[in-house]
Amino acid sequence: MATPQFHPLRIREVRPETADAVSVAFEVPVELRDHYRFTQGQFVTLKTHIDGEETRRSYSICVGVTDYDRDGELRIGIKRVRGGRFSNFAFDTLQPGHTIDVMTPDGRFFTHLNADQGQQYIAFSGGSGITPVLAIIKTTLEVEPRSTFTLVYGNRSVDQIMFAEELEDLKNRFMNRFVLYHVLSDDLQDVELFNGVLDQQKCAAFIENLVPADVIDEAFIDYARGHKGVAFWTGEEILDWYRGAGRKS
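The structure corresponding to this sequence follows.
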């Protein structure tokens, strides 16, 4: 694997996703196209100077590998963080036509795909954690036509859901292969399971009631309490985690 390197890329689009989140698309020159080829779930690091000091932040790629191969689209998601130096700079400063240093993709939050296999995947994600998961879902559904994907996505309210339209488009495009459940902590929904915080107990409740653990081949976890950071787990590992939430398989 080549050592990641910075290159200046021109911003093609800054698109609002919610009141406090945007996605930023970059123009990748033909001569750099192979350098920025990525695996679903990877991130890029942006570098700039803020108040005279070099500042770097990493953001996950939110488009599928097939999108990049087809259209050359490289896009990341950025959520404004209160007091966040780089995220506030991005919101207040980045515009189409601007140039910023972008490191070539890195990261290992993914599983290898195989067009001949049929797997059942599930992801538990919250807030801006959807960014790498969206890339994983898009790529998986296109590369593995026999696989299915379930997403349990937690947010405070409907207006905080990042990439809401894209997720609905995926539901319509892959009606029999992509299932989406929204869990909201502030907006009341008719089904009690869909209300509250997406913590380990809530994830376990989904597994108990809607997605049996023993049929899950691989899982992506980035939001469950009690787990630090993001992780890719096999079906056996998700069973162990499920039992740890006080449930029996």
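The first helix runs from residue 65 to 71.
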